[in-house]
């Protein structure tokens, strides 16, 4: 698939997801008023939309996601959560940058994620997915970054959302080459699956 077609599909999928979200509004949680940027599925207790729609949720369908309910967030909802600022050295230019956004733990709490969950599968728009244990998410204080150096992160860069932590603060991570510190940190994140303990 050509890059331009992929980005067009990604944008269309985000808008389609926001259109599908009202189907669950009767559950008590309001659907976002803006385009959905993040969809949380799996072991959650606060959904605001119904199941995946293979026709309208094209990107999720093509990445073989399945769910019967989800909690969706738009930019305003994520920005309304308490923000945390970090300054990691990034692998892309070897410089420290200011990143800001809510703690992943706070986003999970807002989604009603099972507090005893095994962990979270973080999925990016390019299909990259990684499992982060709940313990590591708390230990490393992962954030869902919405801003880079004071500006919202654009689609096509590292955003609009990036699950990331301040690797420099943790000796076991800081000891690694900078190119090996962020394997658990997908940029362009759009989906999180909450996994229960086996």
Walkthrough of the structure:
- Strand 5 and strand 6 (129-133) form a beta hairpin.
- The protein contains six helices and eleven strands.
- It starts with a helix and ends with a strand.
- The longest helix has 18 residues, at 3-20.
- With 198 residues, the protein is α+β, with helices and mostly antiparallel strands.
Q: How do the SSEs run, as a string of H and E?
A: HEHEHEEHEEHEEEEHE
Alpha plus pi helix count: 6
- Give the strand order of the largest sheet, numbering strands 1, 2, ... along the chain: 2-1-11-5-6
Biggest sheet architecture = 5 strands, mixed
Summarize the structure.
Helices cover 23% and strands 24% of the residues.
What key phrases describe this protein's structure?
198 residues, alpha+beta, four-stranded antiparallel beta sheet, 24% strand
What layout of secondary structure does this protein have?
Elements: H1 3-20, E1 36-42, H2 58-62, E2 71-74, H3 75-80, E3 83-86, E4 99-102, H4 104-110, E5 119-124, E6 129-133, H5 134-139, E7 143-145, E8 147-148, E9 151-152, E10 162-164, H6 171-174, E11 189-195
Parallel strand pairs: 1-11
Antiparallel strand pairs: 1-2, 3-4, 4-8, 5-6, 5-11, 7-10, 8-9
